[in-house]
Amino acid sequence: MTETIRVMRDAGIVTVILNRPEKLNAMTMEMYGRFGEAFDRINADESVRCVIVRGAGERAFCPGSDISEFDAVRTGLGKAKEYARFTMDATLKLHHCPHPTVAQIQGVCVGGGLEIAAMCDLRICGRASRFGIPINRLGLTVDYDELEILNRLIGPAATLEILLEGRIFGAEEALAKGLVSRVVEDGQVEAHALETAERIAGGAPLVNRWHKKFLRRLSDPRPVSAAERDEAFACYETEDYSLGCAAFAAKETPVFKGR
Known about the structure:
The protein is 46% helix and 16% strand. It folds into 2 domains: 197 residues, Alpha-Beta Complex (2-enoyl-CoA Hydratase, Chain A, domain 1), CATH 3.90.226; 45 residues, no CATH class. Helix 1 runs parallel beside helix 3. A hairpin with a 2-residue loop joins strand 1 and strand 2. The strands form 2 sheets. The chain has a 6-stranded mixed beta sheet with strand order 1-2-3-5-7-10, sandwiched between helices. The protein has a 4-stranded mixed beta sheet with strand order 4-6-8-9. By secondary structure, the protein is of the alpha/beta class.
């Protein structure tokens, strides 16, 4: 049986592959389940330094959910709510991943696929990549949980433009909207994503996780507590801080241990 979600690892870099290229990597219920299970393991593994999320092949990152399943799993209010809960619970494990995440986008990245990419910290795409959420062509809405991800990333004006027009647009417009972090030549997407992950993995992993945590906390309107502010100084008591300072003084590249 084909692994619809493949997980590969090279040292501290983990790559999660949406592996259904014959269907442009459209997500089935089974794939959502396996995706969530994969991130349960990744999120609990403190030896991970960076995660790349990509689609199999070069034609697509992901076009979203497989519409051929809708009659069976999404018809009627009850089933639709259950489907949304299941798929969101699975994909939010990527959003809440404590490790840095990079979306490697080649080809089609629309609908729920764009929402998955938006959950990553960085998004790198090729010039031929295409984006959009033409969901109003199906008579469907994007629910509050999904909207929160897009709204936080690009704001309400750009999000509403994408949803109201339902058009497909190119990489340069996606960059201008803030949907992607950078655009590279199509043949360089994989290499560029890996180089980015390697740069991230070369940094102090505790610091990378802290920065993700701090920025997520700042999106919460509650005042930051004194204990939370103190956590920003916990780095000074880590072994990695001592290693980093010593390596800097010796003009050497530090090898951090994550402690």
